[in-house]
Specification:
Helix content of chain B: 55-70%
Distance between the termini of chain A: 63 Å
Strand content of chain A: under 5%
Strand order of the largest sheet of chain B: 1-2
Distance between the termini of chain B: 27 Å
Structural class of chain A: mainly alpha
Bound molecules: protoporphyrin IX containing FE, copper (II) ion
Number of strands of chain A: 0
Shape of chain A: rod-shaped
Order of helices and strands of chain A: H
Chains: A mainly alpha (46), B mainly alpha (529), C alpha+beta (173)
Order of helices and strands of chain B: EEHHHHEHHHHHHHHHHHH
Oligomer: heterotrimer
Number of strands of chain B: 3
Largest sheet of chain A: none
Chain lengths: 46, 529, 173
């Protein structure tokens, strides 16, 4: 099959997926840290 | 062999030996599932139109009744009927085996139908205005709890039948080597189901006894702790089933095979091991449990399950990318994705399911489950938005997508309105994405879930709700209509196909083709055709 | 056909998968550390101070506080201005919060929450803080208001058909 020749010996076999999951992780991290930010400000203290 | 040969037919598409009693059990459970999603969907639309402040459709009592009916028919009945059909398919059909004890399967089905009927009647009679969680001391009539128990016992029998069938298949050597990944994932789901249902028994039996006056009371904090031992891990059943279906759809549509199955299977094992105590994240702002208990259980257990989900988030698309690249779609980073068979509703449905689950349902879960963040999110609409991303945009959409294969293979009918099927997954997927996002946005302004009127009519004090929240609730109503049209189309296509669809006589009649395995990627599920 | 799935457990893991698994694990460890870290160094945590209390006892404590510190009435509900640092009781019942509370900005109060009947939800708006209120349990929140104004206490756990009308009030001066 034509695709096979392009595979590198030790490369990442699925670079597209790697890009997708890294985008996912970035969104995850921004959302998580954005939510923790409020904790320094509001009314309630433990 | 204990079963005679007439009990089997050979599928001309997949070559599977299909055990007819198993096939019938799959059929009836699938039909029951569609009936429930139809009822639940009608309730859902009514509820959504009530929460759209400008429409405010139902009165207070009927809003809570419809909400109870929506939660139970969707989250419990639709999902579990479909999963039972999936379990029989993943054991008997995929392993070429007979089903261990068809009579037990029928008993399970009858119990589940009876339970679902009792619950629905009880809700419609207005004797179970307690919502799906039925937190005591709010009390429903005994018939309601009895219905839930009957349904759960039926589901338990079905899970046991699944395990028995695995044993039969192994003993009668209907397959060699390991079970296929799809069946492996379902096994993980079934194992979680066993201890989930044990929690269910531990809490619903005493609650039933209390409702008929045999127990003086149920401690509300203990109820919440045990109930969420049922409520949370059962969502992991749905996740495991959904991911198994993602892999199966990849195999059926592009002939994919995971880059390395060990990784996928390992991730399923993580679910089994680490999900149970994560249910503590439902009790983060409860009295009665200590901070140490909350932090420890939510963090150590949940985050390893998060790792498992993140692994699947990689391996699911990677399997498809690999298969596509081996077919020659090797240009640029994303040619494999652009050239996927998007005209196939199973592909589009799966892609939407992965996307909505990941970006809306999945990543919001660990955020809401953080002890401190939960203070600003508990019981707000953010929570409802989160799980419409997981169990609706993710699981329900994956189930719908798989139906476009299961229905032709099991009912031997051609899908009615194939063009509409494509529209169906897009309407439902995007509608639910909108529903989930707008619920979360409204919730970020403190809008409560399970609340009839955010204008607070009849309250002693007025509450000024941020006008932005009103806008998000209106957009939620519009998204709900889009999702409901998508859901209605699913029911329409399913019913017309099953009862009036053209019969399939040869593999050529299959509405959506089963892909040959991608080169260099032999697979246990789709044999070379 | 016959099904034959190769044994899968001995094949080496692909490089891309390895990289991603390590990233995912590190992210999970980060999440794992964040929660306890915020617990000790952050300012906002759910309280874990809880006592068992009977509805009768809680009612009595609330009534005593109302008698001592009542300063008026609002919509038929007593308004109470308890001294800073004291134990303050907020009683939930279908479908009312009793009493209305008057706090001073920057002062600390020990707010006790409990229910006379079913489960309720304490949702302070527009600040947006949410806690559960259960019958039989006294949940103590140590609160220090940081802004003045009128705040509503919305019930956000379903407690019966009149649930939506269950609104209380806290005034901060
Ligand atoms: C057309 C599709 C759907 C629409 C428009 C919809 C809409 C809604 C709305 C508006 C609520 C009310 C939230 C509230 O007022 O508190 C709700 C709750 C809920 N929905 Fe859906 N939904 C849909 C599909 C589903 C599906 C497929 C499931 C499960 C598989 C599901 C599970 C739930 C659950 C568990 C609740 C919470 C019930 C409770 O609070 O007791 N929904 N949904
Ligand atoms: Cu209430
Ligand atoms: Cu309430």
């Amino acid at each position: 099959m034509s695709g096979k020749g392009n595979e590198k010996e030790h490369g990442i076999e699925t670079p597209g997926t790697m890009v997708l999951v890294l985008i996912f992780l970035t969104v995850f991290a921004i959302a998580f840290l954005g939510n923790l930010k409020w904790l320094a400000t509001a009314w309630w203290v433990k | 062999m204990s079963a005679s040969n007439e009990a089997f037919r050979t599928c001309d598409v997949t070559g599977f030996r299909v055990h007819r009693p198993a096939e019938w059990l799959i059929r009836v459970n699938a039909v029951a599932a569609v009936v429930c999603v139809l009822i639940g969907g009608i309730y859902g639309l009514l509820v959504a139109l009530t929460r759209w402040p400008a429409v405010h459709l139902l009165d207070a009592a009927w809003y809570y009744r419809a909400l109870s009916g929506h939660g139970l028919n969707m989250l419990i009945f639709w999902i579990i009927f479909f999963e039972v059909a999936g379990l029989y398919f993943g054991s008997a059909v995929v392993l070429n085996s007979r089903i261990a004890a068809p009579k037990v399967g029928w008993l399970a089905f009858i119990l589940m139908v009876a339970g679902a009927l009792l619950v629905n009647v009880s809700i419609l009679r207005g004797k179970a205005d307690v919502l799906m969680t039925s937190y005591p001391p709010l009390k429903a009539e005994p018939m309601y709890y009895l219905g839930v128990i009957l349904f759960a016992v039926g589901a338990l029998l079905a899970v046991i039948l699944f395990f028995a069938t695995l044993v039969v298949a192994k003993r009668e050597k209907t397959y060699q080597g390991s079970v296929p990944l799809f069946t492996f994932g379902l096994t993980a789901a079934a194992i979680i189901a066993i201890f989930t249902l044990a929690h269910g028994a531990a809490i619903y039996v005493p609650t039933f006894l209390w409702s008929i006056g045999l127990l003086p009371g149920i401690d509300p904090a203990i109820y919440r702790t045990v109930w969420w031992g049922l409520g949370h891990p059962s969502q992991q059943i749905n996740v495991a089933a959904m991911i198994s279906i993602w892999y199966l759809i990849g195999t059926l549509t592009v002939g994919s095979k995971p880059v390395n199955e060990k990784v996928c299977r390992g991730a399923f094992l993580l679910y089994i091991l680490f999900i149970n105590l994560a249910s503590a994240h439902h009790l983060l702002v409860d009295p009665g449990v200590s901070s140490t208990w909350k932090v420890w259980n939510t963090s150590y257990a949940m985050y390893l399950a998060v790792v498992a989900s993140m692994i699947h988030a990689y391996t699911v698309p990677a399997a498809i990318e690999l298969a596509q690249r081996r077919k020659g779609y090797n240009k640029s980073l994303f040619e494999w994705l652009r050239k996927a068979p998007w005209g196939n509703p199973a592909v589009a449905g799966m892609a939407l399911s992965v996307f909505v689950f990941g970006f809306l349902g999945g990543l919001t879960g660990p955020i809401l489950g953080t002890e401190q963040v939960n203070i600003i999110a508990h019981n707000t609409y953010r929570i409802t938005g989160h799980f419409h991303g997981t169990v609706v945009g993710g699981t329900t959409l994956a189930f719908m997508a798989l139906s476009y294969y299961i229905v032709p293979l099991i009912f031997r009918r051609q899908i009615a309105f194939p063009k509409l099927a494509n529209l169906q997954v897009w309407l439902f997927g995007l509608g639910v994405a909108g529903l989930s996002a707008t619920m979360m946005l409204a919730g970020s302004y403190g809008v409560p879930r399970r609340h009839w009127d955010i204008a607070f009519s009849g309250a002693p004090f007025g509450v000024e709700v941020n006008p932005a929240a009103y806008m998000w609730l209106a957009l939620m109503g519009i998204s709900a209509i889009i999702a409901a049209i998508g859901g209605a189309l699913y029911c329409l296509i399913a019913v017309v196909t099953v009862f009036f669809g053209k019969r399939m006589d040869s593999p050529k009649d299959l509405t959506y083709p089963v892909s040959a395995p991608a080169p260099d990627a032999g697979t246990g599920i789709a044999p070379s055709l | 056909m016959s099904i034959n799935v190769e044994r899968v457990w001995w094949k080496p893991v692909d490089k891309g998968e390895k990289i991603w698994i390590i990233i995912a694990l590190m992210w999970a460890i980060f999440l794992f550390v964040m929660m306890p870290w915020w617990h000790y160094y952050g300012k906002q945590n759910p309280s874990s101070e809880t006592y068992k209390v009977s509805p009768e006892k809680f009612q009595e404590l609330t009534n005593r506080m109302i008698e001592q510190y009542k300063v008026g009435e609002d919509a038929g509900i007593p308004v109470v201005a308890p001294p800073p640092g004291s134990d303050v009781f907020l009683l939930a019942r279908q479908f009312q919060w009793t009493p209305v509370l008057k706090f001073k900005k920057g002062e600390t109060y020990r707010l006790h929450l409990s229910s006379m009947d079913v489960q309720h939800g304490f949702s302070l708006q527009p600040t947006n803080m949410n806690f559960m209120v259960l019958p039989g349990y006294d949940y103590v929140l140590t609160m220090t208001p940081t802004e003045t104004g009128t705040f509503e206490v919305v019930c956000n756990e379903f407690c019966g058909i009149g649930h939506h009308a269950m609104v209380g009030k806290i005034i901060v001066e």
